[in-house]
Design brief:
Rossmann fold; nine-stranded mixed β-sheet
């Protein structure tokens, strides 16, 4: 996919109906040869819309108006490019716990959770948040995560978690204002509810910090998995992480995680962790696939706002 195509795809399949500002912005970049040339000057792993828009937001630039965005990017490109070179898209959306909960609640308790690509670890607290699936409410914590659930009943309980750990090349610290600022910058402009959710989830993590280990999700996963307590069901999970890896490295990870004890829960794009015979997604928007131990279960939306179970 060319850079232009990736920005059009982001606009039409991810931002449309979710963020009008980012839909406008991505479509404008896709039609602007000067901006496309600047993006092309970044390393291949640093060209995605989420990273560029997040860096501009972090540095105080405009992202609501395409003309103002264009002028700002051209005027400040060296600073923007330098910042992008040091950043990774580490969206730590606690709302994705609403996608994980139906699977986690059905596994043998207690659970030992290990997230790869954990960012600041906000998805390591599915037992601490509240949930609303239509008219079904469970859990008593904050934030309350809302998710449209189709094709299966809502879970009846939250899991019992006795150990939580995360692995990330660059773990973020909810106690560091600079790290929180980056997580905030990655939230899309109109999403005030997600900003409030970030603050509430960060407060949960700050009150009981998880074990966050800097490391590679292939090389360093076995040692961290071995640290899980005996008697707990190990669950290795990840969401929207494996696209950062080459296809060969993804294959290494899948082979490794399949060989670990416990269970593997993934929420990734169907082009990243492919499955044969998937039904058509509910609509033309971008959907990920929730899977347990390599078996696909449901289509999901990227911020945890909706899921549709297969069959």
């Amino acid at each position: 996919m060319t850079i232009k195509e990736s920005y059009v795809d982001f606009a039409t399949r991810e931002a449309r109906g979710v963020s009008p500002a980012y839909e406008r912005l991505a479509l404008a970049v896709a039609e602007d040869e000067e901006l496309l040339a600047l993006v092309a000057s970044l390393p291949p792993g640093k060209r995605q819309p989420n990273l560029l828009f997040g860096v501009v937001r972090l540095l105080g630039g405009p992202v609501e108006d395409p003309a103002a965005f264009r002028a700002h990017v051209i005027a400040h490109w060296p600073t923007i490019a330098a910042e992008a070179a040091t950043r990774i898209v580490q969206t730590n959306e606690a709302g994705r716990c609403a996608l994980l909960l139906p699977v986690l609640a059905a596994l043998p308790r207690p659970l030992a959770l290990l997230e790869v690509g954990a960012s600041a670890g906000l998805c390591l607290y599915p037992d601490r948040y509240g949930y609303r699936y239509g008219d079904r409410v469970l859990g008593t914590g904050e934030p309350v995560l809302e998710c449209s659930l189709v094709g299966a009943p809502a879970p009846s309980s939250v899991p019992d978690v006795v150990w939580r750990a995360g692995l990330d090349l660059n773990p973020l610290d909810v106690g560091d204002p600079a790290d929180i600022a980056w997580l905030d910058a990655l939230i899309w402009p109109e999403h005030a509810h997600r900003r409030a959710r970030l603050r509430a989830a960060a407060a949960v993590a700050a009150a009981d910090p998880p074990l966050l280990v800097p490391g590679d999700l292939v090389d360093d996963l076995p040692a961290l998995a071995a640290a899980a307590p005996a008697g707990a069901t190990l669950v290795v999970f990840h969401s929207s992480v494996l696209y950062h890896l080459s296809a060969a490295r993804r294959a290494e990870f899948v082979a490794l995680v399949r060989g670990l004890p416990g269970h593997w829960v993934s929420v990734e794009g169907p082009d990243i962790v492919p499955f044969a015979g998937l039904p058509e997604p509910p609509d033309g928007a971008h959907h990920n696939v929730l899977a347990l131990d390599g078996e696909p279960l449901a289509w999901t939306r990227g911020h945890g706002q909706a899921m549709a179970w297969f069959g």
